[in-house]
Recover the amino acids of this structure.
C-alpha cells in the first residue's frame, strides 16, 4: 500500500514502539503509588514531559498530558469565563468548532473570523475581533486539510496588546515546521502524539505560566490538578520519544516532505481541470489538497483505495457523509467544487517512486 494520509495519523515509529513496550508489560505500576515500582513509572512520565517541552521550547510544568488533540482543544476553550465572548476562525478543526458551539449554546457569544480565498486569516478579521474584545481567540497554526500556515505570531502580538488570550491548535504543524510556544506569542497550544509517529491516545495542552485552567475531568488530581485520571503511561512515553526524535530530525523531515510535494505538484499539473487549493498560500511542506472538475472526491478516494493507495477526501476527524469541506466553503469555494477535494499528506517513509506511481494511477482513473 502507498500511504498518503499522514495528516490523519502517522505509523508508529519502531523506535517509539521499543520505548513504550516495557510500560505495557514489565513496568505496570500506578505512577501515583509511593513504592519503587510506581516511582519508576512516574520518572518515565516526567522524562516524557521534559522531551515534549523541549520540542516546543517550554518548561515541563507547562505540559498537561491529555488523551489527544481533541481533549486538549476542549480543555483550552474551557478557560472561557461565564458569559464571556470568544472567537475562533472559520477553518478550525471540528474539535474546536463543536466545543465552541457547545459554549455558544450555554450562553457565550461566539465570534467567527473569516478567511480569504487562500484560507488565511486576514488582518481585517483580526481588527474586527479586537474591536469586539473577546476573552479568548483560537486560531490553528496549520490547517489539517489545506496545510495553510497562519501568521499566528503577528496576530497574537496584536491581540495580547489588547489583553486578549490566544490559543493555537498546533496539532498539524508539529513535526512538519518549527513550533516554538514563546515565539508564537500564544497562551495555550494543543499538540498530539500520533501526528508525529507516536502512539494514539495521547496529546498535550501547553499552558502559559500565568493561565488558570478549568479542568474538564475531576478525580485524583493528576497532571497538576488540571486533568485527573491515571496516566496512559505507555502512550505518554511514546509521545516523549516521538518528540525527541522529531526535535533531532525536523530539518531532514521537512526537506524530504518539501521535495516530494514539489514533485507531486509538478506532476499534477499535467492532469486537465485539476486545481490545487490554496496553492498561493504558505503551506505545510507535506500537504496538497486538490480537486478535479466533475470528479467526486470521495468516489476518487475509494477508487484509489482499490488500487492500493490511501488518500483522504478531507479531515479524518469529521463525519457526515459527502458533505463539502467547511474549510473550502469558508474560502469561498462552491459546494460542488469543494466536493471534488482529495488530500495527499506525505510522510517520512514516502518516496519519489510512490509519487510517480500515484500520479500515473490517478491519471488512469480520471483520464
Amino acid at each position: 500500500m502507498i500511504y498518503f494520509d499522514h495528516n490523519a495519523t502517522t505509523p508508529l515509529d519502531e523506535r517509539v514502539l521499543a520505548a513504550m513496550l516495557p510500560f505495557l508489560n514489565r513496568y505496570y505500576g500506578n505512577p501515583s503509588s509511593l513504592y519503587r515500582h510506581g516511582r519508576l513509572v512516574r520518572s518515565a512520565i516526567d522524562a516524557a514531559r521534559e522531551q515534549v517541552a523541549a520540542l516546543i521550547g517550554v518548561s515541563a510544568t507547562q505540559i498537561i498530558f491529555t488523551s489527544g488533540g481533541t481533549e486538549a482543544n476542549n480543555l483550552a476553550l474551557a478557560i472561557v469565563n461565564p458569559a464571556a465572548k470568544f472567537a475562533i476562525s472559520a477553518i478550525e478543526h471540528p474539535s474546536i468548532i463543536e466545543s465552541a458551539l457547545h459554549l455558544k449554546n450555554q450562553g457565550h457569544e461566539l465570534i467567527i473570523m473569516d478567511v480569504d480565498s487562500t484560507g488565511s486569516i486576514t488582518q481585517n478579521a483580526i481588527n474586527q475581533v479586537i474591536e469586539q474584545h473577546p476573552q479568548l481567540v483560537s486560531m490553528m497554526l496549520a490547517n489539517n486539510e489545506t496545510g495553510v500556515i497562519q501568521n499566528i505570531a503577528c496576530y497574537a502580538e496584536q491581540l495580547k496588546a489588547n489583553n486578549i488570550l490566544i490559543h493555537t491548535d498546533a496539532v498539524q504543524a508539529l513535526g512538519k515546521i518549527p513550533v516554538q510556544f514563546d515565539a508564537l506569542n500564544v497562551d495555550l497550544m494543543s499538540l498530539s502524539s500520533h501526528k508525529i509517529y507516536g502512539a494514539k491516545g495521547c496529546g498535550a495542552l501547553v499552558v502559559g505560566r500565568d493561565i488558570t485552567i478549568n479542568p474538564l475531568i475531576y478525580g485524583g488530581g493528576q497532571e497538576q490538578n488540571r486533568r485527573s485520571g491515571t496516566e496512559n503511561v505507555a502512550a505518554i512515553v511514546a509521545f516523549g520519544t516521538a518528540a525527541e526524535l522529531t526535535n533531532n530530525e525536523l530539518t531532514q523531515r521537512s526537506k524530504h516532505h518539501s521535495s516530494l510535494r514539489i514533485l507531486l505538484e509538478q506532476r499534477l499539473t499535467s492532469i486537465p481541470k485539476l486545481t490545487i487549493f490554496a496553492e498561493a498560500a504558505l503551506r505545510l511542506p507535506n500537504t496538497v489538497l486538490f480537486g478535479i472538475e466533475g470528479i467526486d472526491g470521495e468516489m476518487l478516494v475509494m477508487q484509489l483505495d482499490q488500487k492500493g493507495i490511501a488518500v483522504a477526501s478531507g479531515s479524518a476527524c469529521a463525519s457526515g457523509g459527502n458533505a463539502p469541506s467547511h474549510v473550502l466553503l469558508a474560502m469561498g469555494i462552491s459546494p460542488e467544487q469543494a466536493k471534488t477535494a482529495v488530500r495527499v499528506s506525505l510522510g517520512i517513509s514516502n518516496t519519489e517512486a510512490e509519487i510517480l506511481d500515484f500520479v500515473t494511477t490517478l491519471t488512469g482513473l480520471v483520464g
The domain at 2-8+250-366 is CATH 3.90.1150.10 (Aspartate Aminotransferase, domain 1). The chain has a mean pLDDT of 95. The first strand starts at residue 2 and ends at 3. The CA atoms of residues 6 and 232 lie 23 Å apart.
